[in-house]
Structure formats: C-alpha cells, structure tokens
Design brief:
alpha/beta; five-stranded parallel beta sheet; binds adenosine-5'-diphosphate; globular; four-stranded mixed beta sheet; binds magnesium ion; 14% strand
C-alpha cells in the first residue's frame, strides 16, 4: 500500500489523466470539453488529489452535476480513501490570482439551521453518509432537524417575471403565514431548470427570517425514499414518520420520484405525514415536473390531496427576465460581462434557466483558462459548443434583432403598428422567420410584431414565401438572414 501511495504521489498528472479517460467514456464530448478541460490537476498528497478550477460557480456546477461520477473515478484511481480537493483560482488580468481551497465532498453553499426542538428522535448519519436517516434514541432529547436550505436560493436572488409572478407572490405570502393560508399544500410544477428548487428554498429561508423558531426542512423526494428504506431496514419506520410529522414547514422537492418504481410503502408513509401536518396546520410545499393532473404513479388519495391547496406552474422566462437573471448571477459573484454578451446569451438560450447559467459559467471558465477576455465571439463559440442542439431554440426577440440590424430598422419600430414602407417588409419577414423557427402560435407572433392578428401573420408568411420564389432580391434577403440566424 505504501509503495502504491508513493507512486501515486509522484504522478498526479497520470492519476488525473486516468480519471479523465473514464469520465470521457461516461459523458458526452461536448460536456467533457466544457466542464473537464478547464480543470488542472495541481498536486496530490497521500490519497487527496488537488484540482484547480476557474471559479467558485464552476466548482458548484461540478458538484451539482458530476459529483457522483467524480466520486466514482477518484475511488477507482485512489482507493476507498480517495478524496478530491479543489482550488479555485480566478485569473485576474495581470494581477495575482485569487485562490481558495475547498474539500470534496462538501456542501459549497451555506445551510440555515433550525433551533433544537423536543422530539424523541436523533438525526442519524447512516452507513451511507450521503443518506442521513432519522431514527429514535431512548427518551426525549433536544434535537436539531437539518433545514438543508441553501442561503443563496433566497427571494432576493429570485428574479420576478411573468413566468413566476403568481408562484413567487404565493410563496412569499406562505412565508408570512406558513400553514395559515389556503395554499396548503403549495404545489409548484414546471419543466426542469425553471426555478422550482430555488423558489422552494426561498420560501423556506423567508419563513426562517420571519419565524426563526419554526422548523423548516427541505428534502428531495429521492433522499426521502432512501431514508425511508433505511428506516424500514433498521426497524424505525414509525420514528421516520414521527420525525417528519414534527416539522413546521416541510418542503419535498421532485415528488415525481415517488411515483416511479414500486414505492407504495414510501407513498403510504408520506400520506401519514401529509395528513398529520395538514391537520396541524403545518405548511407543506411540493415540487414536481408535472401537474397533479398529469403526474403518474400515485395513489388516488395522495393525488387528491395534492390538489387541496394551490397549484402553480412556472413557465419559461421571457427575454427581460432572462437578462435580469444573468445580471443577478453575475452581480452575486462579483463578475462583469459586456452587455452585448449578456444580451446574446439571453437571446439565444431561451428554454431553460439552468442552461443559461451553465453557459455563463462555461464562458467564464474558458476565458480564464485561455486568458481570453469575455467577448461576443467567445460567447458565440461556447453557446454553439455548449448548448444542446435541442435547446438551441431561436427566440422571437433574437429574430427581430437580426432582422432589425439587417434592414437597419429598430426593433421598437418592428414592434410598433407603424405602416411606413421601410418597416412593413422587415416586419413581414420577422413573422415569416418566427413561424419557421419558434413554436409560438401565430397570434403570439402577431402580438410581438405590431399587434397583428393571426390572419395577418398567415398572410405575411405566404407573401414572403411567394416572393422568395419569384423575387431574386427577396431570395437573397431570406438566405442571408437565415445564415445570420444560425451563427
Ligand atoms: P428546477 O428545480 O425547476 O429544475 P432550479 O430551481 O434548480 O430549477 O433552477 C435552475 C437554476 O436557475 C438555479 O441556479 C436557479 O438559481 C436559477 N433560477 C431559476 N429561476 C430563477 C429566477 N427567477 N431568478 C434567479 N435565478 C433563477
Ligand atoms: Mg429542482
């Protein structure tokens, strides 16, 4: 063993190269290039490999998305005791680099704590350290239930937009009077990456601000399930239920996990917890990827309970909100991007806030790695590489911007109801491309192009199609714009 360790000590580069080859086999090439090439191995001590990463956000992204893979490869290369340590080095133009060391596995984000409460339960770290499970110790004991809340996921950082206004307002109201509003349970659903987890945390955190003595606990449904299995295995099923029944604000994230596989027993336990909490006017917050009407794999009695309170959907943020979200993330991390880069990202990455954030972190990493400034060219390069082709949907705002620039008319003019000659055709071309590249209904396209109705949009699209076939100039316009659209 000793010789093995010293051999490793000498060759941290080799260790990391071996890790990379396994990682490469497990993820797609684009993600590999984006998230693993910016990492530099910088040393090894015993069984701890130190990696240099270009920013704190980069490290958080790695932990969120690749923690399991990293743990696996490190254990494979360095044995059971294998560990990773990160050093965040932010290359500042010419001045000294900033360095900060973080150990893995760790929770990079601060968690808010709950006050100790009297429950006959001990928070028990089971054999598998990732899956803490509650269990009973004899007698009453002052006990702290972990909140698992992430400080940065607060309301201040949760940008308001049409996409989340109702959910945000209701969530804020809940935090003023948890369990006391009619929004119980509060059921938030949306596609992935649109802010459910963030909002759920924000409600929890705000509750703690308003009522420091209330016990708030956040749990992912998958962890809840693992804990339940552990509790059953160790004969602590009832205590598991009691534990969750002692919480004032229970947040269950991604409840759809309980609907897959055979999880009837876990659902049953959740049913008991739910009933107790609801009866005691304790707040329940549930998130899901589907509405209670569309979610599958749940017993009818649970489904009907999901609908007792308020159900709200989070939708895709509009351009303005996407821009504000980017600005907020940058501001929180003390980073500046040129305005045109921010606009470009907000225009190009339209369907998923997480991807928007991912692109921003990736650009930053590349800039730091190659000592390049953050420019529009770098952003274009990264968006092409980084954003999955399916997510690379072209937005109506982007179409208008390209066409406005091409014909030298302002987007405001295209959006207005002016009928000047110079704007009528660009507007029709906007409608034509919006129909071609977005999934928006014609009426929505019309609303974005000078408040036209759906018949007008249809007419415009036909006109442009016809001209494309018959008018050489129009053919050139359309082909050139099309090319610009796809850069
Ligand atoms: P979901 O749980 O729906 O998959 P998350 O809550 O994990 O989505 O959000 C993905 C990322 O996008 C997070 O980093 C989150 O902070 C960010 N995000 C989503 N919506 C907003 C918003 N309205 N304001 C600021 N950040 C947001
Ligand atoms: Mg989530």
């Amino acid at each position: 063993m000793a010789t093995e360790v010293s051999k490793i000590t000498k060759d941290y580069q080799q260790v990391w190269t071996n890790c990379l080859s396994i990682i490469r086999d497990n993820i797609d090439e684009q993600n590999f290039q984006t998230w693993f090439t910016p990492i530099k191995p910088i040393g090894i001590e015993k069984t701890t490999l130190t990696l240099q990463v270009p920013s704190h956000m980069f490290y958080e992204w790695l932990e969120e998305h690749y923690i399991n893979l990293l743990k696996k490869v490190i254990k494979k290369e360095l044995g059971e005791l294998g560990k990773l340590q990160y050093r965040v080095v932010m290359e500042k133009k010419s001045s000294n680099s900033e360095s900060q060391t973080i150990n893995l596995p760790s929770n990079p984000r601060q968690a808010t704590s709950n006050p100790p409460i009297n429950v006959p339960i001990e928070y028990y770290k089971s054999g598998n350290k990732d899956i803490p499970a509650p269990f009973v110790v004899p007698g009453i004991k002052k006990h702290k239930i972990p909140s698992n809340l992430v400080e940065s996921y607060n309301f201040d950082n949760y940008v308001e937009g049409e996409c989340n206004r109702l959910a945000r307002t209701a969530g804020y109201a809940i935090a003023q009077d948890p369990g006391g509003t009619s929004f119980n349970p509060f059921f938030i659903y949306s596609e992935v990456g649109l802010g459910k987890t963030h909002l759920a945390h924000a409600i929890g955190l705000q509750t703690k601000v308003n009522f420091p003595n209330k016990t708030v606990s956040y749990i992912n449904a998958d962890t809840f399930y693992q804990q339940f299995l552990e509790a059953v295995k160790t004969g602590n099923r009832n205590d598991f239920i009691l534990y969750y029944q002692s919480i004032d604000v229970l947040i269950i994230d991604d409840i759809e996990h309980l609907g897959t596989g055979n999880k009837t027993a876990t659902q049953e336990a959740f049913f008991h917890i739910f009933n107790h909490l609801h009866l005691k006017k304790k707040q329940i917050i549930i998130t899901s990827d589907k509405s209670p009407v569309d979610i599958s794999g749940f017993e009818a009695r649970l489904l009907s309970r999901f609908k007792w309170g308020l159900t709200v959907e989070l939708t895709v943020p509009d351009f303005d909100t996407r821009t504000k979200i980017l600005l907020k993330k940058l501001e929180n991390n003390g980073i500046n991007f040129p305005e045109e880069v921010i606009t470009y990202l907000a225009l190009r990455i339209t369907s998923n806030t997480r991807e928007l954030e991912g692109a921003m972190i990736a650009i930053l990493a590349q800039a730091s790695l190659n000592h390049r400034p953050v420019t529009i060219d770098l952003a274009k390069e990264m968006v092409d590489k980084y954003v999955k082709s399916t997510a690379k949907e072209i937005s109506i705002e982007y179409i208008q911007k390209i066409i406005g620039e091409y014909f030298n008319v302002s987007v405001e003019k295209i959006n207005s109801n002016k009928r000047d000659r110079e704007v009528v055709q660009p507007r029709q071309i906007c409608m034509f491309f919006s129909k071609k590249y977005t999934k928006l209904p014609l009426a929505t396209i019309g609303a974005h192009c000078g408040g036209k109705d759906h018949a007008t949009v249809l007419h415009a699209c036909r006109t442009i199609s016809n001209l494309y076939e018959t008018d050489k100039k129009m053919k050139i316009y359309i082909d050139e714009i099309d090319k610009k659209m796809k850069i």
